[in-house]
Amino acid sequence: MTPEKVKEVGKICIPGMRLSLLNKEYISGPGTYELKGYIYATLAGVLKMEEDDKTKATIISVESPRTPSVLPKTGDVVTAKVTVVNSRLVQCIILCVGPSVLVRPYKGILKKEDIKSTDKDRIDPYKCFRPGDVILARVLPMTEIHWYHLSTAENELGVVIATAAGSPQGVSMVPISWSEMQCPKTLVKEPRKVARVIPENINQELFPVHNNPEEKEKETK
Amino acid sequence: MPLDFRRFNGPEDSVSYTRFTQDFLKSYDELHNELINKSNLRKDGRALDEARSMFARTDMISQAKGSAYVELKKTKVVCSVFDPREIPHQNEFSQLGQIFCEVKFAPFSCSRQRRPAAPDAEDKSLSVALRQALEPAVCRHLFPNYQIDVFVYIIEHDGACLAAAINAAGLALADAAVPMYDIITASSIAIIGDKMFVDPTEEEEHVAMISPDSENVNHGIITMSMLSELKQVSDFIQIGSMDTDCVIKAMDILEKECAKLIPNIQQVLVMNVVQNIEQQKKLEEEAKEREAALNAKLEEWKTLLNAG
Amino acid sequence: MAEIYKLIHPVKYFNDYISRNVRPDGRQFHEHRNIKLNVNSIKASEASGVVKCGNTTVICGIKLELATPKAEEPDSGFLVTNVELLPLCSSKFRPGPPSDYAQVVSNIVTDIVMNSECINLKDLCIVYDKLAWVLYCDIVCIDNDGGLIDACVMALISSLKTLTLPNVTYDPETEDIKVDITKRSPLKVNGLPVATSFAIFPFFEKSILLTDPSAYEEDMCGGNGANLIVCWNKGFLCGTQKFGGSTLSMEDEKQALKIAKQRTKLVEKLIETCIDNESK
């Protein structure tokens, strides 16, 4: 590889590289750590310097070309797939944290009372989720060792992709209200805790233009 | 030894044929004298304080998050790192994440005997040594209650395999984007009498581990790993018997050897970043192309639908 | 974004590609991956072969030992082949004793070699009822990206072909064994078995045959490894396995056999060229 190509990419950092002084002007961001008045890199990646609007300080961070090996944090919105539903709770596996895909799925748990913010006593998990549904949820503070507690008690959180019972794989239902979804093929209606998907959200990518060709193709036939 | 029912086993009384060759019966003195020739060079033409040149590369294994391959002439080591996962059978909350290391020799890696397929004591002790060396280098507070798997496989063993394993693991961890405090490098030295063999081969290690007939002769192997930017020693293993002066002298040499490896490792990591970024760009472009193609198709159908 | 789509809608993602007559890695349905072969790169073993089929990497090393032959077959030696699926080659394998899948792979490879009769075990006997060679062939997988058995068989055969046995003298009176490593004779290998894997993907009413599947394609077609393995040796079939997956029509099966035969020719040529280059 030629040196020109290396220059094109930007300033490359590797772990243990001293990046700058640590003071009011420079703050350590993701991918860095502080030690004895200096900021060092922890990842191999490209150096990013951004100015914070409030304090006017420069945040120094290192961006890795790969997904960093990190775990979901409290407050993150995650994409998860439901695996088990019972009368008290819903178990799922976490697939993505924000926009980054996890290589290894982590276990998540959604308690009955965390499903909706209203009508908490009358929630029936069976009427909100089914195994196989893809949901959006927020991570709650961690209390157990290997389970991430999740919550969908927000309008924007809940089921985004679901297949009706008996429909072929890959045909997802369309939301028709905040609590119901319908299959476009079999016209079966099923109850779900539906997420209100706002455009410009990452979830838009989950209903991509890709979906339509085959379905349309069948229709035209 | 109990029979391993999960593998195909050979006959129980089989012996390596090297047992019947003439070389097998050499005495200690013969072996010792063979190591260095008259012009003070080792068997492979190196001077005593000359290390083998290291070849390293990352991204060897497509299925792993991060991986590396390190070659010191005949010593070949491959390492892969996977994302954090749950610690099995753990029921206590721990602030720091753990590193699970497994070092294994290939059955055909050693020229002396065939390695058993099941892990033996040497595999286990190398695994522990590797874990201890890596723990201070990784920001373990970022993944509490979880463990990162580091698997090292020694394809061919020709001395200094622990040092090679640590170097490979350091590269693989950086490749997997596991946050680390510093680059980790390691080097080893074999001591036989008053001679110090930097980066020893398997033969030299073998002689260094035999106790000589005369007493009070220094012999043994030292492996040291360093975090060079932070000037910290992350692991130090000394096997054999030697006096303090000898150990101190060996540490000085090892520190220099570890520092010598840094530019090589830095270069590999920089190239790794550049390659990854380029690959990412390529993937994005491909995805865009696909999307454009699909969009075009969709438009076509739309017009068809409208017409019909 | 493609990554997320692949993770959340696996079936649809794959269908998208198949409906456009292309596979996710850009290959045609019947196109196999590039094969790289290197023999005798591991000097610590008697003979070795490193095979790369696309990303799949497999190393085979042979160790030689001496033993007394079995009482029931006093004129035969031993050929012990084991396949080791290391935890480092894929996140699916855990450290510890070999999994069921590893044992199945081991068994298939052994069956192929034994059925093809490419090694005559009688050649491995040195002295009747007293002394015979034991060939420990250990095949390890460094990177598992599908088509594992193809790579294992190729690595094994290419290392067997380069194996030379040292000269052994046995004194029947003193039972003294002497090995002279300077004099070596090559092992006789008859034929050259080559395996070809296929995955069978159910796509609407028909099923689609994918040659030399990657690990992702194997997963999509029902899980544990390839669905169909065809093995040719010198124009004869020496093992055909069909595991799970979708149903396969007669025509597809015929086509699979044909493709496997073509690929066998190519692989034979590759192994022979590689060994020729090495011995020069």
Q: What would the CATH topology of the largest domain in chain A be? A: OB fold (Dihydrolipoamide Acetyltransferase, E2P)
The mean pLDDT of chain A is: 77
The helix/strand class of chain A is mainly beta
**Percentage of residues in strands of chain A:** 35-45%
Low-confidence stretches of chain B: none
Q: What are the low-pLDDT stretches of chain A, counting only 5+ consecutive residues below 50?
A: 199-221
The biggest chain-chain interface is: B-C, 51 and 54 residues
Q: For the terminal residues of chain A, how far apart are their CA atoms?
A: 52 Å
Cα gyration radius of chain B (Å): 24 Å
Quantity of strands of chain B, as a count: 11
Give the total of domains of chain B: 1
Please give the share of residues in helix of chain B.
Answer: 25-40%
Strand order of the largest sheet of chain A: 8-9-10-12-11
Please identify, by name, the CATH architecture of the largest domain in chain A.
Answer: Beta Barrel
The outline of chain A comes out as elongated
Distance between the termini of chain B: 78 Å
Which CATH top level class of chain B fits? Alpha Beta
- Please tell me the CATH architecture of chain B by its name: 2-Layer Sandwich
Shape of chain B: elongated
Description:
With 221 residues, chain A is mainly beta. Chain A folds into two domains: 3-63, OB fold (Dihydrolipoamide Acetyltransferase, E2P), CATH 2.40.50; 77-199, OB fold (Dihydrolipoamide Acetyltransferase, E2P). Helix content of chain A is 7%, strand content 38%. Chain A is built from two helices and 16 strands. In chain A, the strands form four sheets. In chain A, strands 8-9-10-12-11 form a five-stranded mixed barrel. Chain A is elongated. The model of chain A is unreliable at 199-221 (pLDDT under 50). The relative contact order of chain B is 0.13. The N and C termini of chain B lie far apart (78 Å). Chain B has 308 residues and is of the alpha+beta class. Chain B has helices at residues 28-35, 121-134, 161-175, 202-209, 244-307, and strands spanning 15-16, 54-58, 66-72, 75-81, 85-86, 98-105, 146-156, 184-192, 195-198, 219-227, 232-241. Chain B has one domain (17-268): Ribosomal Protein S5, domain 2. In chain B, the strands form two sheets. In chain B, strands 2, 3, 4, 5, 6 and 7 form a six-stranded mixed beta sheet that branches. Chain C contains six helices and twelve strands. In chain C, strands 1, 2, 3, 4, 5 and 6 form a six-stranded mixed beta sheet that branches. In chain C, strands 10-9-11-12 form a four-stranded antiparallel beta sheet, with helices on both faces. Chain C has a two-stranded antiparallel ribbon with strand order 7-8. In chain C, a hairpin with a 2-residue loop joins β2 and β3. In chain C, α1 (2-8) packs across α2 and α3 (100-116) packs across α4 (148-162). The longest helix of chain C has 30 residues, at 250-279. Chain C is elongated. The chains are: A mainly beta (221), B alpha+beta (308), C alpha+beta (280). Chains in contact: A-B, A-C, B-C. Chains B and C meet through β1, β4, β7 and α5 of B and β3, β4, α3, β6 and β8 of C.
